[in-house]
Amino acid sequence: MSTSVSKSTKSSNSTSISKSTSRSKSTLRSNSTSRSKSTSRSKSTLRSESTSRSKSTLRSKSTLRSNSTSRSKSTLRSNSTSRSKSTLRPNSTSRSKSTSRSKSTSRSKSTLRSKSTSRSKSTMRS
To answer: Is the model's pTM score more than 0.70?
Structure first.
């Protein structure tokens, strides 16, 4: 007597063993376990901090100094001497003497002093 025991175990595959004139025992076990766990955690944090500091300083100093001196001296001297002598006789003699002296002196002095100082300081902080 021929005894054939055939046991087939398959997981997710198919295996078939067959023998003639025998006893065939086929056991197909399929165990499928599907566990799906989906956890989605989303945390979004947006922080925006903007600080703007602006400081502008403008310093300007302007100094203008002007000194003007004008001196003028004018001297006019005039000396005029006129002598006339006339004698009328049968013979006529006429004498005339004229002397004119003129002296003119003009002095002019002009001094102009100008001093300009400009200081500018600009500071900008941003």
So the answer is: no
